[in-house]
Specification:
The chain is an alpha+beta fold and 428 residues long. The chain has 9 helices and 21 strands. It starts with a helix and ends with a strand.
Length: 428
């Protein structure tokens, strides 16, 4: 089959599949919006604040929803209540759908509480809307709420959170840093962060929201002593079906303020553990580091070689294209990958690969207390297997410095077997 014929066949199928996908999404959206499950789905949105009108959104036991490790640390005092005053800004409120605009509206913003460690920056924002703003929106009408151009940086102009590369370059220009997005990433002046936004409270004129900001990959947050919050827009929607970035109400002002980081957070110290024994030499813990809010483990296990990915004509054709070939694009690759996943060959490959990575790991301390993987906003517990048969695991557990003992045991349940690796505190 010639190159153009393969492409034409793929292109036609993409068009058909796109139509089916759009139709299915439309039908699914209608069903969801007609269902009471809408409230639950909206409450768990990770792309914007969504308020459930009939459900209490008060969260306390696990206030930031970052897992038991963070909760333990907070209960031990690892949380900062700022007691700061509101930052007041003269704001313009615009309803972009109706064209209605109200000027000279006072809108106040402050940070109530926050927690910062090497991997998480969880902040509770309190926003106070003025009486004048009620002509366009009241707190109990709000379904979605986000700070669309929020930048959080520290005293060294390291950016811990920024929504886009374009926004970072605006920040860089304002601060005369002379760095573009890629240069800042390379110099660790811009930490690649994800965000999970959680509704907390709507009461009177107050809206309280939590930003769970977290690192990805091997990135760590610096030991910052001061955080600067900088934003000019608050995006609001009264429609539960609104997508992120399509909110109809925009508050434009200028909010910039500093937050002092307490010493126990900027002077945080980690504890390194080392492997001293294993029940099976095929099981090795390479790194083990204990933090205030969790324990990170990296382990390697010898197992069977990774199954060979099946060969597909259309994928081979795609791989043969040069990088500048116009046929090499995301739509084509997406369709090819989707089509492959429907085949028996792929399903068998996936089954074998899943079996080789299906493993449960947990920790116990010397007191016999069990600690499992942290369930929080960011992905946790990654597993990857090499062609040589080395299974690599990396994850954060809810064992914290407040539960530490001299020894920690890592328990592996894999292929019907249970193995243990003993860790001990390294030299301090």
């Amino acid at each position: 089959m010639g190159k153009e014929k393969i492409f034409k066949n793929i292109q036609e199928n993409i068009a058909i599949e796109n139509f089916r996908t759009v139709h299915k999404k439309h039908e699914r959206t209608k069903k969801i919006l007609q269902s009471t499950l809408t409230v639950m789905i909206c409450c768990l949105s990770i792309t914007g604040i969504v308020f459930a009108k009939d459900i209490s959104t008060k969260l306390y036991d696990n206030f930031f929803m970052t897992g038991k490790g963070m909760e333990t640390a907070m209960n031990e005092g690892y949380i900062e209540n700022t007691d700061m005053e509101y930052e007041n800004a003269n704001t313009t409120v615009e309803n972009t759908q109706t064209g209605e605009i109200i000027e000279d509206v006072e809108t106040k913003v402050k940070v109530s509480e926050f927690v910062m460690d090497d991997f998480n920056l969880s902040i509770s924002f309190d926003v106070e809307l003025s009486e004048k703003a009620k002509e366009i929106v009241t707190a109990d009408e709000i379904w979605k709420f986000n700070f669309s151009d929020l930048v959080i940086s520290d005293e060294n102009n390291v950016v811990l959170y920024c929504p886009t590369g374009v926004r970072y370059e605006e920040f860089s220009k304002e601060k005369n840093l002379g760095l573009n997005y890629n240069e800042a990433m390379d110099k660790n002046m811009y930490i690649g962060s994800g965000v999970n936004i959680i509704p907390v409270q709507r009461e009177g004129n107050h809206v309280k929201v939590v930003y769970n900001i977290y690192t990805g990959g091997d990135s760590h947050y610096p030991k910052s002593k001061t955080l600067t919050v900088d934003m000019t827009k608050i995006n609001i929607s009264k429609n539960e079906g609104t997508s992120m970035g399509e909110e109809e109400i925009i508050l434009t002002g200028d909010w910039q303020f500093d937050i002092a980081v307490p010493e126990n957070m900027y002077n945080r110290q980690s504890v390194v553990y080392v492997q001293t024994d294993t029940s099976n030499e095929d099981y090795q813990v390479e790194t083990a580091t204990l933090y205030d809010t969790g324990m990170e483990i990296t382990a390697k296990i010898k197992t069977e070689p990774k199954p060979q990915y099946p060969s597909f004509l259309e994928h081979d054709f795609y791989d043969s294209l040069s990088d500048d070939d116009p046929l090499k694009n995301v739509d084509i690759l997406g369709y090819i990958s989707w089509k492959e996943r429907q085949t028996d060959a792929y399903k068998e490959y996936y089954r074998k690969a899943y079996e080789l990575t299906d493993m449960t790991i947990y920790l116990t301390n010397e007191n016999g207390k069990k600690f499992t993987l942290i369930q929080g906003p960011n992905e946790n517990g990654s597993k990857a297997i090499s062609e040589e048969g080395i299974l690599t695991f990396k994850g954060m557990f809810d064992l914290t410095k407040y539960n530490e003992t001299k020894k920690v045991i890592v328990h592996f349940e894999y292929k019907g077997q249970t193995e243990e690796v003993v860790l001990e505190k390294g030299d301090e």
